[in-house]
Each structure stands twice: as structure tokens, then as C-alpha cells.
């Protein structure tokens, strides 16, 4: 059984930035990459092509990783000017994400660390480095750590919740792996339907954010089958 959080880092971004538009997109059950593409390219969602969605997905995750116009232009294979325009359009659509991004860098400069939603800290003494490459990297980490770190915390908490709830229900299982936002388990065939419900409910309700957590469940004889 494969249980994979859907777009957890962007959901954490919506929660921590408190951006009304991003929160609304998730509450309305929108495909976030399609929604972002529609806003960036100025079209209705039904006019979004696969290529537009692919580019919007790259932009969504690029923002998470603190990517600038140069790196984004290389990822999208477009000019740096075009990448700058994409980033500008993104921040026009999600203004509080820009404010959150700036506030994390400012917090890091003042305190020399950033922290996850659960208080886990990463120290960033290099945020004041005279070397602009070192300083820029620290700024990217200052944005990225609260988001990826919080996502990692949630996955760890969900592993504990899944383990405890499966045990309580007398499910015969083995927790095999945690890979990024995905948990892999071995379950007896005759208990698989019950286990699917327990795992999904445990992971989706392990913490309460301003947007719902969503978990995709897959089942198969091996990891490949369960991830299809």
C-alpha cells in the first residue's frame, strides 16, 4: 500500500503565508497547477494546455525553493525576461506569498535561524555572508526550510499516527519505507480495504491546517504497481 501526500509543500505554503487566493484554490478543490497556469497566462482553466500546466508546476515548486529568474529560465527553457514576467504574475496572484517569502528572509537575518511550524530550527549564520553566492543560498534556505521542514514534520507525525491506528485495529502490517511525502506498507490482502481507510484518515487528520491535507492511496503487488 502506497500513501502519498498530494502537494503537501504548497499546502503548507498556503497555511503559513495565509494567502487568501491560495487557500481558496485548495478549499475549492482546484488543481493548483492548472489554477496557477490560468492566472499566469491570463486564460480560463479550460484553456490551459499540458505545456502551460507543466510550466506552472515548475513555477509553483520554484517559488518554494526560492528560485530566481535565472534558474527558472533554465528550468523552463525560456528567456530570463520571460521568467521574470512569470514570477511577477505569480506574486500578483498570490501577494501574501511574496510577503511571506520576504518575512522569512528578514526573520533569518534578525535571528540567524528559521523554524518549522512545529518549532524545529535550522541555524543560518551565513545569511550575513559578504559572499553574495553564500548569502543568496542562505536566503533560499530561509524560505525553503519552514516549508519543506514542516512537510517533513507532518510526514513523521503521520507515520506515528498510521502505525498506532493500524495496531489498534489489529491490522497485520509492516511499515517499510518513507520516501519524501510517501509511506509504503505491506498489508494482508484480506485487510487492505480497512487499512486504506485507516491510513488515509490518519494522514489527512494528523494536523489541522487552513487547507485540507490530501492523501492518494495506491495498492499493488509491489511499489511500482501501487504508485501507478
Structural write-up:
- The mean pLDDT is 94.
- The strands form two sheets. Strands 4-5-1-6 form a four-stranded antiparallel sheet.
- It has 228 residues and is an alpha+beta fold.
- Strand 2 (113-115) and strand 3 (121-123) form a beta hairpin.
- It is built from ten helices and six strands; from the N terminus they run E-H-H-H-H-H-H-H-E-E-H-E-E-H-E-H.
Name the helix and strand elements from N-terminus to C-terminus, one letter apiece: EHHHHHHHEEHEEHEH
Distance between the termini: 12 Å
Helix count equals 10
- Estimate the global geometry from the Cα principal axes: globular
Biggest beta sheet attributes: 4 strands, antiparallel
Mean pLDDT: 94
The Cα radius of gyration reads: 19 Å
Beta-strand segment tally: 6
Unreliable stretches: none
Oligomer: single chain
The strands making up the biggest β-sheet line up spatially as: 4-5-1-6
In helices, the fraction of residues equals 55-70%
- Summing up helix and strand content along with how strands pair, one would put the structural category as alpha+beta
User: What percentage of amino acids are in beta strands?
Assistant: 5-15%
Write the layout of secondary structure elements.
Elements: E1 2-5, H1 8-17, H2 20-27, H3 32-41, H4 50-64, H5 69-76, H6 80-93, H7 95-111, E2 113-115, E3 121-123, H8 132-168, E4 173-179, E5 182-187, H9 192-204, E6 215-218, H10 223-226
Helix pairs in contact: 1-7, 1-8, 3-4, 3-6, 5-6, 6-7, 7-8, 8-9
Amino acid at each position: 500500500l502506497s500513501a502519498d501526500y498530494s502537494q503537501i509543500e504548497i499546502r503548507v505554503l498556503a497555511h503559513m503565508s495565509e494567502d487568501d487566493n491560495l487557500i481558496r484554490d485548495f478549499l475549492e478543490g482546484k488543481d493548483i497547477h492548472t489554477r496557477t497556469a490560468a492566472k499566469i497566462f491570463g486564460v480560463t482553466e479550460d484553456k490551459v494546455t499540458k505545456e502551460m500546466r507543466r510550466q506552472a508546476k515548475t513555477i509553483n515548486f520554484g517559488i518554494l525553493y526560492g528560485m530566481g529568474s535565472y534558474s527558472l529560465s533554465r528550468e523552463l527553457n525560456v528567456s530570463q525576461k520571460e521568467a521574470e514576467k512569470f514570477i511577477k504574475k505569480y506574486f500578483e496572484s498570490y501577494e501574501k506569498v511574496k510577503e511571506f517569502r520576504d518575512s522569512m528572509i528578514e526573520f533569518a537575518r534578525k535571528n540567524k535561524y528559521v523554524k518549522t511550524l512545529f518549532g524545529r530550527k535550522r541555524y543560518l549564520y551565513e545569511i550575513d555572508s559578504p559572499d553574495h553566492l553564500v548569502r543568496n543560498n542562505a536566503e533560499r534556505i530561509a524560505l525553503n526550510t519552514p516549508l519543506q521542514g514542516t512537510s517533513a514534520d507532518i510526514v513523521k507525525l503521520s507515520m506515528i499516527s498510521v502505525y498506532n491506528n493500524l495496531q489498534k485495529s489489529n491490522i497485520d502490517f509492516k511499515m517499510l519505507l518513507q520516501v519524501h511525502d510517501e509511506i509504503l506498507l505491506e498489508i494482508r490482502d484480506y485487510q487492505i480495504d480497512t487499512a486504506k481507510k485507516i491510513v488515509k484518515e490518519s494522514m489527512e487528520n494528523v494536523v489541522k491546517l487552513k487547507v485540507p491535507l490530501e492523501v492518494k492511496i495506491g495498492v499493488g503487488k509491489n511499489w511500482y504497481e501501487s504508485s501507478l
